[in-house]
Design a protein that fits this description.
five-stranded mixed sheet, Exopolyphosphatase/guanosine-5'-triphosphate, 3'-diphosphate pyrophosphatase, EC 3.6.1.11, hydrolase, EC 3.6.1.40, 22% strand, single chain, 305 residues, guanosine-5'-triphosphate,3'-diphosphate diphosphatase activity
Length: 305
């Protein structure tokens, strides 16, 4: 058995999983998530902002203390969409190396898709293959079709932060324009991935799990209740429509809403709604296990850090 630490640094959040890896079994020791908005402004400027880097490094310093205190012997840091797109990603990489002693892996969209599939499919039950795993992130969304392994995958540049900055920041929300962006990205997906083969849609990440918590009318965020739940397409549409019609304060008052998701959840829900409608899925199987679990599982094949 090996104690491992996986860090996923996305556009909106930075997350930590410390777990015991024993063959194919992964047992959680600790999970943490901080909304740092690393990718704030990247879609417009092409750079990671100094204040966003500092927010991220502050969260990572706390994570490094947990990694040391729990005695993890292998550490892996993976960075995704915002860092891929940033011209100053070397500055980010230097900070990560100083904090954790390892260089971050700035993964491609295809690598991100593989990790998401690995984490998701090991963590849900009742998913009839082939499975389409959809990971709605802050800067990009990954679509991965597979059975035992990945058969086809694509990463497209639609995410809850990217679309919020483009269409939902300042003034009247431009829902029609956001929908057009999403639909154009789904055209790319349809051209690259044979979605019609999928028997099960598995949805990952904070936008999906938050929509699930709202649909379940939970009094507080409860991962155990959310994981493995099934959301009918009609419920996805209802929750998306409600969120887009709400004010900021109304969204903030939803019991399951993390404060860092209040301003971006409308865009995330719209992505989920459009893809469910476009590809004709009857429901979404929700998973709390995702790329973070895939990163940790991959450490079983990595040399110690």
């Amino acid at each position: 058995m090996t104690r491992v630490a996986a860090i996923d640094c996305g556009t909106n959040s930075v997350r930590l999983l410390i777990a015991d890896l024993d063959g194919g079994d992964l047992s959680d020791v600790e999970r943490r998530m901080e909304i740092v908005r690393l990718g704030a402004g990247v879609d417009r400027t092409g750079k990671l902002a100094p204040e966003a880097l500092e927010r991220t490094f502050t969260a990572m310093r706390g994570y490094a203390e947990l990694v040391r205190s729990h005695g993890a012997t292998k550490v892996r840091v993976v960075a995704t969409s915002a860092t891929r797109d940033a011209s100053n990603r070397d500055e980010f990489a230097g900070g990560v190396h100083e904090i954790f002693g390892v260089r971050p892996e700035v993964v491609t969209g295809a690598e991100e898709a593989h990790l998401s599939f690995l984490g998701a499919t090991a963590g849900v039950h009742g998913a009839e293959p082939p499975v389409l795993v959809v990971d709605i992130g802050g800067g990009s969304t990954e679509f991965v079709l597979g059975t035992a392994d990945v058969d086809a995958a694509i990463s497209v540049d639609i995410g809850c932060v990217r679309l919020t900055e483009r269409h939902f920041s300042g003034g009247e929300p431009r829902v029609a324009a956001a929908t057009a962006d999403i639909d154009a990205a789904l055209d790319q997906v349809a051209a690259e991935v044979p979605v019609s083969r999928a028997r099960t849609l598995v949805g990952l990440a904070g936008s999906v799990t938050t929509v699930a918590g709202i649909a379940l009318d939970l009094p507080a965020y409860d991962p155990a209740r959310i994981h493995g739940s099934r959301l009918p397409a009609a419920k996805v549409h209802e929750v998306s429509r409600r969120l887009l019609a709400m004010t900021h304060d109304e969204r903030a008052a939803i019991p399951v809403m993390h404060p860092g998701r209040v301003d971006v959840i409308g865009a995330g829900a719209l992505i989920l709604d459009r893809l469910v409608e476009r590809f004709g899925f009857a429901d979404v199987l929700v998973s709390e296990h995702d790329i973070l679990d895939g990163i940790a599982r991959g450490l079983g094949e990595e040399p110690p850090s």
